[in-house]
Amino acid sequence: MTRDVKTITDNESLQQSCKVMNANKIGSVIVVSSDSGTRVPVGIITERDVINHIAMDVSRVHTRAGELMSRPLVTILPTTSLRDALRIIVSKNIRHLPVVESDGGVLVGMVTDKDIYRAIVKDEALIAGLMSDEMLIEHIGRLEQPWVYKLGEILHRRMGSSSSSSRDGDIGPQKNA
């Protein structure tokens, strides 16, 4: 989970969201309400959103984020398991899951598909508890090449092995050992 989640207010422009994504080399920004003064997310703008809106009309770059953001926002809690987060990502066909507190919905982090892939690569035993072979094969097509190769190796070893594991990791803050 990434704790330093970049946000913009719903009054800022699509162009400003692009500047934030570019400056931070990220694929999305969370939109928060300019009225509340809190970090309660109300939507998200992703690279896909930017492409779709600008392809329709380049003048949309000056439109308020609140008008163009994707919503309703799909969120998870810090206690959501890695398995459940992955199921949400696959079933909703999304790549970014804001993590919010259960009381008040304040933004505390973000889990992306890449975070999940990194966790799997770091601890290959997680894969047995996370996804079926079919689910992994379906999702692997969306990955960048280095992840495809690594997960392909894991899948190959897994399919050749008869052992199984059923670990389920938490998404919450990672503790250094």
Topology:
Layout: E1 7-9, H1 14-24, E2 28-32, E3 41-46, H2 47-56, H3 65-68, H4 82-92, E4 96-100, E5 107-112, H5 113-122, H6 126-130, H7 133-140, H8 145-160
Parallel strand pairs: 1-2
Antiparallel strand pairs: 2-3, 4-5
Helix pairs in contact: 7-8
Largest sheet: 3 strands, mixed
Number of extended strands: 5
Order of helix and strand elements from N to C terminus: EHEEHHHEEHHHH
Total number of helices: 8
Structural class: alpha+beta
Assembly type? single chain
What's the gyration radius in Å? 18 Å
Low-confidence runs (pLDDT<50, min 5 residues)? 162-177
Shape: globular
Provide the β-strand percentage band.
5-15%
Q: What is the topology, as strand order, of the major beta sheet?
A: 1-2-3
Can you give the mean pLDDT?
A: 81
Report the helical percentage: 40-55%
Span between termini: 17 Å
What does this structure look like?
The protein has helices at residues 14-24, 47-56, 65-68, 82-92, 113-122, 126-130, 133-140, 145-160; strands at 7-9, 28-32, 41-46, 96-100, 107-112. It is α+β, with helices and mostly antiparallel strands and 177 residues long. A 3-stranded mixed beta sheet has the order 1-2-3. Helix 7 (133-140) packs antiparallel against helix 8.
